[in-house]
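User: I'm writing a tutorial on reading structure tokens. Could you give me a worked example: one chain, its sequence, then its tokens, then a sentence or two explaining what the tokens reveal?
Assistant: Sure. Here is the example chain.
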Amino acid sequence: MSKQQFREIRELVTVPCATINSAIIKSRLGCICRWLASLCVALSVSTIRAEQPPTAFPAAATPPSSLYGQLIERGIQLPSDLLVTVDPAIAPDDFLAMGSEERRQQLETVAGKNGWDRFSRDSAVAPVRIELEFIKNSAGERVGHRIYSVFVAYAPLETLRDEQLMREIFGQASVDSGDERPDSSLTADNPDATTTPASRNVPLAELKRLGISPPSEQERFAAIELPLLNRVTMRGTIQVQRNEGPGWVRLVWQIDPRFADSTDFGNTWTKFERNEVGMPIETEPKPYAGCGGYLQIIQIDAELQQLLVESRMVMYEPVDWFSGSNFLRSKLPTVLQENARSFRRGLTREHTEK
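And here are its predicted structure tokens:
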């Protein structure tokens, strides 16, 4: 992700989410996964889990009060009447209450084949565990992705800020995809090049019009414009909530379906194509729905300033994005790894500059 992210010490756990300005989400979802999310997170080895059917929506279910509860219990609504849950994060309070031996065993499980000692190296290029799973509809057609990434970074938890966490979710690393988007700064020789999407807070008047309560100090609604692999641009509104406790913090987000029909803040995507003279043009916008997840950071060792960064995301991929190919999926591991490396380098640079 980037290096200029650690400026005000001790602002993460105290700064209200509602006060965050547009810089917070300014990084660029340049590859949906850094929408990683996750690198979302993203963040971001590669283990393909067995494909599982989407969770059915309970007939008379009451949506959980928190966005996190909603995503892991009720799920994210995708087109074609699919409701897909996000797998829960490591329970931070339970993890931190474990004895050293039990905690070590769980960390070995997280590290997988890498082993914890190698996985937890204090290095920008330390391993990143990534799991990708196709989401399929009732006809067996691939319609989206479940994306999981976890890695270790080093920094005092209390110095992290929401801006850094949002950048880890939405990413700053990118992979060249053919440069179909005009004026793109991304090249295969410069995977850390970034574009910053337009972002602004949704006015209270628009929230009121849609019947949405004003955001709390731990919540935000932001209109975003995000380029995806230089070929697709997503525009819409995300809802972000921040959860925290002693030794951990979590940002939960989703493309908010309540803004689907909003004139100025609706959720859409467009594609860049070549016209008859070879110039890139943007297609008419089409509706988009079905993306969300979370980024959770647990302080494993305060003395070592060792952090476990975990990200999960569900993402719908319209077939028209990349003609039903595996193009996006093939880019996700590289993007997630680059996001993790950029995030680590940013932490190192900030500490060096202090």
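What the tokens reveal: Residues 260 and 266 are 5 Å apart (CA to CA). The radius of gyration is 19 Å.
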